[in-house]
Input
Amino acid sequence: ILTLSTALSLSACQNLSISQTQGTENPFSESVGDNEEVMFAYGFGLESPKYEEKIVYTGEPIEIEYYINNNGTTMSTGMLMFVDGIPQSYSIDGGNTSTYMHIQEVEENKRAIVRISFVPICGKAGETVSVRFLSILNPQIRPDQLNYLFGHTNRMTTFMARTIDMQINAVAHNTKFPSLDKQRDMTQEEIDQVIYVDSKGNSVDKLGWFHFVARNTKNPSSPYLDIRDHKIEYTLQGYGGPAAEYIIIPYINQTPVLNETYPCLMSIEAGTKVYSQNMTLNLATIDKTEYKIEQFNTIYFLAIPLSGSINLEPMITNSYVFRGDAG
Output
């Protein structure tokens, strides 16, 4: 049975992102619940190079500056970068260590600029590859119970992708990843969940945009994922929108899972097609120190469009809790 992404929203979590040409402003400035006071209002984008300037890889590290304008309460953002859909590590202020997520705290009514550098993880000479920037809100917050509701935590903001003109090959330019099974035809019951007439008599068609959902396999409304034999159990779904290809990556405690299974490729067809599969992620293959595994942990999934779908937006699932001490 297809589970609509709207039915999976927990507190303020949603599966939609916000896109503008060069940056986003005030993504969380509207009330999202009767009992929730709006506190976060910030903008995120590139300071340099400007939108009209090309980004070129000549063999030297590429330098970029991004800004955070905070018009709300003190908050932190974690910046993720992807080159052609692949998680890209980067260094801060010319440092020698790299990270997949730099967390920057910004005080109320302050503006921060962060300077980063990176060498593209993929791309061949003569190619133009996409580079995407995602901001994750307050990623330093960890769940303290199994039924934890994330609210605004881990909400994603993004803006239109930029491109890199590759003048030489990247050091590692292998972008062959395992592919998920092809989508199947929706059942009539599933079609009726996405194409219908609402209570006000309005026609609704949810197939016009891409839906990307992860959920508890046994209990779709659960805020946590089950563990069996040291494996996280979940159902992954994708449907709607134009035909496109997405790189799928799980993030555990804000660190991408990069192994023989992930990243993987999800191919989306237009029309009444759906990918829906029960899956597992083996915690026995995860380095507990690297992924900061504790009693309660965070997992979410990202879907990043490949370079050929540069005008499409990345998507994030709801965040879920899983126990690190469960068997």
